[in-house]
Write a structure and sequence with these properties.
- There is one protein chain.
- With 90 residues, the chain is of the alpha+beta class.
- It has one domain (6-82).
- The protein has 2 helices and 5 strands, in the order H-E-E-E-E-E-H.
- It has helices spanning 6-18, 71-82, and strands at 23-27, 35-39, 47-53, 56-59, 64-67.
- A 5-stranded antiparallel β-sheet has the order 1-2-3-4-5, with helices on one face.
- A hairpin with a 7-residue loop joins strand 1 (23-27) and strand 2 (35-39).
- Helix 1 crosses helix 2.
- The chain is globular, with a radius of gyration of 12 Å.
């Protein structure tokens, strides 16, 4: 069994979000949980931080986004919040 770290989980989420046209940057502030800064370059001012703590992904205002294991739900919620397309075009 492979154990993923918090940064592995956030990097996977970031990769999936960029496929939807979003930009994602990993932040690892000292003394705080790791987070992604996610923005939509197509919608000026559209940005949000998503934190990973206690095996869950949280919005910056403290609401639960999704379980860390449910990346599909997290991607859908972030895309919806930031006005990004939800269908990946290959």
């Amino acid at each position: 069994m492979v154990t993923l770290t918090y940064t592995d989980c956030l990097r996977d989420l970031a990769d999936r979000l960029t496929a939807h046209g979003l930009r994602a940057r990993l932040d690892q502030p000292i003394g705080r949980p790791p987070a992604l800064h996610v923005s939509n370059p197509g919608v000026p001012g559209s940005a949000e931080h998503v934190f990973l703590e206690d095996q869950a992904l949280w919005w910056s205002w403290g609401d639960l986004l999704a379980a860390a294991s449910n990346v599909d739900a997290a991607v859908a919620g972030i895309c919806r919040m930031l006005g990004a397309r939800t269908a990946v075009v290959n």
